[in-house]
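Example record for the data management plan.
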Amino acid sequence: MVYLTIIYIVFRVVFEEIVIKKMKQAKMRYSFKKTISILYILVFLFALVAIWIEQTETLLISYGLIGAGIAVSLQDVFKNFAGGITIFLIGLYRVGDRVEINGKIGDVIDIGVLYTTIMEIGEWVDGNQATGRLTIIPNSNVLTNIVNNFTKDHNFIWDEISLPITYDSDWTDAHSKFLDIVKMLKKKQQLLQSEQIRKSLN
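Corresponding structural encoding:
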């Protein structure tokens, strides 16, 4: 019981109540809390088995039998769990990122231990707009499929805009107006990025 109490204090009190509350960024706080929850479950289970079994040889055999049983009977669950750990430890994507997993594109709204939930983008809706559907993707996909993260290193999406112009239109005037709009949007984006950099440094 002493070991279990220490584990509880370290993970639930020290990490969640003290460390996590000091994190200012919501994404970092969310990812760290999920990682701590996974580690807490693993450490707690191993400690529980160790308390029940006193002999070392029997303990090792028990761990082996438990691992074999999980690998055989719960293959999909185990793969999803391993994928969840990979996502949190490596940082393949975070909440808010736009990703493409196994052909599905969307914005990540939740990363669970077994599944990732995204707000679907595209399909029959043009302009990279949300379809309104939530797609639940097993985390095992990150182990076997290519994962594209559109916003891992920046907060904007590369896109292409087509502007239809008639043969009778003044294309030079349209070109000039379009450049003015782009310069205005670029200026706003630069101000926004400067503000984000300033907040991250404080």
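Summary line stored alongside the record: The beta strands are 98-101, 104-111, 115-121, 130-138, 147-149.
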